Amino acid sequence: MFLSKIWFILVALFAGVSLSIALTAPRPMVQKLEELEGQRLDRAEYATEQMLKVDAHKWIDRVARLGRDAVLAEALDSASRGSGELGVQHRTVQVRIQALLPDLAGAGIATIVAVDANGRVVARVGGDDDKSFGENIGGAELIDDALRGFLSDDVWGAGGRLLRVAGAPVLSKSRDRIVGALYVGAETGAQFAERLKKNLDVDIALLLKGKVIASTIPAEVLSGLPDMVEQHRQDIDNLKRTPALPIDVGKETYLAVAAPFPGQASLQKAYYVLIGKKPAHADMGSLLASTSARDLKWGSFPWIPLLVTILGIIAVGLFLQRFEVDGPMQRIRAELRALVRLDGAKLDDHKYGGGFGGIARDVNAALEHVSIAMSGAHPLGNHPPGDAPPPGSAFAGGESHFAQAPRAAAGPPLIPGLGAPPPPAFAPPSDEPAPVTAPAQPAFGAAGAPSEQDEDAHIREVYEQFLATKKECGEPTTGLTLDKFSQRLHDNRAALMAKHDCRTVRFTVYVKEGKASLRATPIK
Amino acid sequence: MTTMTSLRTLVPLLLLALPLPALAGTVKGTVRVPDAVRSGRMNQGYWRLENGNVPVRPSAKKLGTVVVLDGISGTHPPPPKTVTVEIAGLSATPRFVVIGPGSVVEFKNTGKITHELSVPADETLMPVERLNPGTFRHQKFGVPGGYLVRCSEYPSLAISVIVVDSPYYAVADDKGAFSIPGVPDGKANLKVWAGGRWAHQESIETNGKDLSIRIESAKSANQPEAKDTEGMGTGKEGDSEGKESDPKGSAE
Questions:
Q1: What order do you get walking across the sheet with B233-236 strand by strand?
Q2: pTM of the prediction?
Q3: Across the interface, which of A134, A150, A263 has its CB nearest the CB of B56?
Q4: Both B37 and B148 in a single domain?
Q5: Which positions 203-242 of B are in contact with A (Cβ < 8 Å)?
Q6: Which pLDDT tens digit goes with each residue over A286-309?
Q7: In this structure, are B110 and B144 located in the same domain?
Q8: What contacts A141, CB < 8 A, 6 or more positions away?
Q9: Are residues B161 and B87 in the same domain?
Q10: Do the interacting molecules here have an ipTM over 0.90?
Q11: A–B: how many Cβ contacts below 8 A?
């Protein structure tokens, strides 16, 4: 079975290598997909940045146009000089702005604020506090810039909200001095996130002061996002964005690219985070889960090579099985049947190799032993050809080709002082010394013990055979009297009967290493 | 006569025998602050354009650049005092203070806007606390160093508190010129506070003579702390361009 074992090892190796390839091969693909998703997020980040720039420029243009309005200029000039009532100027400016921009929401604007040249709020339009005015907001960089003559934008984070703002100076009617400033603000929250998601096909989260203030994914599952972004502050400072970072959102894994908002909100940990789904894991479960029926169609899957390979492996295995197992087994069965028909004395164990050779030799040894054990009452050779084996013999039982030998044939104990211990009943024949002769078995009753006369006769017979064998072997026989011999065998028999709980003990004379020896066999 | 002659001989000898006082000189120079600080806009958005009709006015804000010489042996820090910073709307006056260790700064909100002041870099020293209109907050600064107090809601509102343990410091003028007179000779550590952070630091040797230093600092407070000294260079040369500034200027 050597080849079968080699084949089994080869098949196992082949299966192992195939499984390793199957599990490893998708990983580079998943890495590539991750890389592509990261690039997609990078492009989305670039697009977002451009969108923010365009929005800022659009609002700067709008507020600059408003800043050239003569009515606004006159009212703010008046407020800056401190002439007239601020309440009147407040209403004038508010009404004028509402007239110029009747649909703030349509323009994507949340609020417009007009300040005089001293930075004092004259009027607000839009928002919840459009009735308040008079406070000084000079000092805000955007307002100071506008009052100096700059048109600029900024991002503010106050009250847990992000506001993108754009400011411009209001010039006097003669266009020779600055009389105030205007700024517009656009709420940057859920609506902005939805707009980005719609345009860029990525999820968005907006962070401010370490909290998620708006997102297209439920904010509660993004609780770890602010900390994760903050850990990459160095990347953000250097590159103005993070690399694609894996984040766990519930049971899903996503990739996220975070970038800071510009302006003073950058001091308030204000970021927008673009989130894309990470490709599925490459483990076996995920692979099978993502397999569809289309993948198993004839055109998509190499069914024929796979079937040919499997059939080839099976064919080689079956051939080796036939060559090394089934063939020898059939031959040995045929020989055993021949033995049952008394068409031969033993198996030809030279024909068989490996395990079957060993079995053949064991069977031969068993046959030999049984033949010895049964030589008295039921000598194997006395059966006429074609007779069925006697009940209880090694060959009883019809279909059983390897029936266990009778218990009586089991390894007999050594008779101390009279010979070496005999080998086990089914020991290989090479170790088994050939028996010189087998004394006749006593004809016991079914359950009765042999009579004393039978025992004496048996011992006498054994004594004679032992004496003769010793002479044949050239051993001295001086002092070996029947009385001594009989006494010793009686003692041994008694000890063995007590030990093995048997009816009697039969002794056999045999030659071992050129000397006469005795073997004791307990009879149950 | 004999006595007078003896005195005439003895006095110069005594004068020679007395230990000579340490020589003192003036350290002066110019500081070129980061562009963002000079522009008056520390945190820019995407766009900043001139209006095209009216010339842009210079920023009304002072730069708040302070040059400090410390590590001079035998000097005493300025005595502790209480300085009031008034916050009206979104602006603070003064925007920076230079005080001795143990001094107290009183932040007084006289405007209509609620602020939340803290030292973001050291919130254990000054944690975020609400400062409602009409209220004030006292904060003691015991350890020498530079502290930027900022409003977390309106971060453009920032107050520099520079605690010095040496009387040798000066506030640079609008052109960046500074002058520190009476500096004893020896080694000193020159530090420049600009744009809300220590923008430059170097060891100098004063030898009783006047020393002119040109410091160029290209970084602002919003740039990474880890790269403090990157991009900064100094050049020591004669510089008579800068005006002398107030060496005692403790507040703008």
A1: B177-184, B24-32, B211-216, B233-236
A2: 0.64
A3: A150
A4: no
A5: 222-224, 226
A6: 777 778 888 888 888 889 999 999
A7: yes
A8: A154, A263, A264, B40, B41, B42, B43, B156
A9: yes
A10: no
A11: 136
